[in-house]
Amino acid sequence: MSVGGFLASQAKLSGPLSGDVRRSDAVLGAEEHALNRGPNNERWARVLIGGLAMSFGLAGILMIPSGQFTSARSIYVAVAALSTVPVAVVWFLSSWSRRRLANVYVLYADIGILAVMLSFETPFIAMAGSAMFSVVAVFAIVSTSPRTLALHLVGATAALLLIAVLSILDGTNPWTVASQAVIFGSLFAVPFALRPYIRHLRRQAQVALRDSLTGLWNRRGLFDVVEHLNKADVSTRTGPSVIGVMVIDIDRFKSINDTYGHPSGDAVLVEVANRLSHAASKDSAVSRLGGDEFVCVHIGSPTEVDEAESRIRAALEESFSGPPFTTSIGSAGDHIIKGDATGALVRRLVALADIELYRNKTQPRSVDPGARADPLQIRQRMTSLIESGGPTVVFQPICNTATRAVVGFEALSRFPFGHGSPMIWFRDATQAGIGTRLELAAIDNALRAMETLPAHAFVSLNASAETIRSTDLHARLAPHIGTRTLYLEITEHERVDDYRSVARSVEDLRAAGVRISVDDVGAGFSGLRQVVELKPDALKVDYALVHGIDKDPTRRAAAAALAGFAREVGSTLILEGVETSGELRVALELGVEMVQGFLTGRPDVPSAYAES
Fold first, then answer.
1. DSSP 3-state of 60
2. What would the CATH number be for the domain defined by 3-22+234-362?
3. Tens digit of each residue's pLDDT (9 = 90 or more) over 216-268
4. DSSP symbol at 403
């Protein structure tokens, strides 16, 4: 069972999410959770800190009967002591693990300690209270930044000196005051002794949860992080949550080591790890389970999980300057209840994905990897989908690069959960001999759905070369040609062998007013010959060339060459999968006319783009 078939899948790899390796707050919190070694330790830490807060208040309450305060000051000290109760309760019920809240707690404790110390009638007796600053410092080491710790210790030292001066002014022997100040001041050095040790413990914990070669989570770290991710508020989605698991295995990895040497094999492992880390969503966990096996776990909406699988599959198909390698992938998914324990579920999904992986790995390479079921079953499934009105259609905006105004839309298909990504649906259909019928159903649904789109915007429809060659698309498109500009986007479901017949069909459509676009230029079957033979009106540069183009001179050079080629032949160039402002900036610098991607617009239902 593939993760890629969740309800909100796109029809092709047209709009990956950001590959930025910056992690979300949820993932950072998951890492901290994993390093703290589980929920039980976190619970005991909360109880301990809450108990310390209560002890501060108890110490103040116990001092009131001693006669050290006036009546007015006793009331003040009692109020300050009682204020620790709600603070402690908050610690008992939930963690103040956020850095800002931890800083507020340190400030609250420092002000409270100093205020109580200044309430004593005899400053010299109050000097003992400075020991409390050391307790707060221990908390600051664990939960705050070095800057906060330094500011706390500066403040504590200043408070101790203030009380010492007040004691001398009150008539206490200066030498006695100095002796006490040195004793209590030496306690402030304890945090500096603890900090290296805590850093050492954290490094050890990280080593225990991380793979030493790739830096990814190991098996132990993976389950800890996924458990936390499901409990964290990773998004504002209101729909059902799903969990998707992908298992990735490097094919014939032993032969890579034997042929190129172990350092080259390690380079391949690191390369795969980097690709997975960049392609996975921010709220996901990527792990190396051992050897040449990797696991990616995503928790989110069906659309988010689907998009993550599509990005990962695309990333693993990119070229590599080191030893050539291929990968096999298995995936599985299920619905999940937020907050539930995930360990058993993840283990079950990993096992299911492993089964699919090895089934795919043992298939002959001549067999389409999308063919994963009996052709009769596939035809029945496709027929049932089409007869029920599927696939559903969403539209992704295509924008002017300079103004970011919407100039067109691409129609994308979405499929039911449980049978793979849209790419796999179309490949399955082609393998079973029903690919053309499924594509025509998607086109018919797109033609009906596009009526509510802005009239000035063109619409791009996807069709394989076989569908263009073997069906009468002109009859389907003719009623709409006069009212809207239509692009027919040639997809790469299979290699084009008979360019002559496809070119004749393309010319007939072009003569009728349909514009032609070639998809995924720079990847798969969309080579220069297809561009030369079909003479498209638009070229869509594949995501693999666009992703990170602002940071990679080689990708930029390839895109610049395609931009020059497009200008020479009179084609419009579209960069697909633009996700960052840096990638958009490069598109502007290269003179690219249009862009498409999550930066400028996500796929949505037609009504979301209807003219008001």
1. helix
2. 3.30.70.270
3. 888 878 887 777 777 664 444 555 678 888 999 998 888 888 887 888 888 88
4. T
